[in-house]
Design goal:
Elements: H1 13-36, E1 40-47, H2 53-61, E2 69-72, H3 79-82, H4 88-91, E3 99-104, H5 113-116, H6 122-141, E4 145-152, H7 155-166, H8 177-184, H9 186-200, E5 207-211, H10 215-228
Parallel strand pairs: 1-3, 1-4, 2-3, 4-5
Length: 270
Amino acid sequence: MGQDEHPRASIPNRVYEAELIRLQAELVRAQEWVKAENQRVVVVFEGRDAAGKGGTVKRITEYLSPRNTRIVALPTPTERERSQWYFQRYVEHLPAGGEITLFDRSWYNRAGVEWVMGFCTPHEHRRFLHQCPIFERLLVEDGIMLRKYWFSVSDSEQQRRFASRLNDPMRQWKLSPMDLESITRWEDYSRAKDEMMVHTDIPEAPWYVVESDSKKRARLNMIAHLLSTIPYVDVPLPALALPDRPPPQGYQRPPREHTTYVPDHSASLG
């Protein structure tokens, strides 16, 4: 492979860290605007396994208030949920005014893993492709800011990341038999994604593709783009000042031996 085939494959750590913290500060400003203006924001993260969605979500939420910004990563649906309207269990997680909801995988499971792995019928799949644009238009029509990102990773980079997780006891939980089977179904997932895009890449809620072979570039590019789509401005915050501590009023702390303390594990280090 020639050196200039991927001229932007890496980014220096100092550049990455500096830009990430700048963007995270902007995310804090954006969250304050969402709260002040009672806006509702939904961000959908989709893409192949190991494409870098979860890591990007973590960087977005690192300095945001969990009261106003929530991550939704739903497990396998229950029997009761399977009998509901497909979108029903996602609707209950939509934001109220002043909130941001990040879907780490979303209703698009039906167009991806459910369809490829045979967990839904052809009729259910066709119905999803028909209803999804209607559902999303209704969300946007109601005032929700809906942003959809597809993280695109090459087969070779996905293989490398899977191998890295397989040999790392701290990250093995990120691998499942379903993830590994996706290797053998690469083209099936590609066809499913292409068909999904044809039906759901709509003007009201377009798809934005994030090239994610470089995780650092993917994070910076995605966050910068998200911020560019939200018309936030600085919100004046109330002036705060630390009050003076009042003089002691005779309180006596109970003896330490009457309280159970966590052992000082740190004292045994170094």
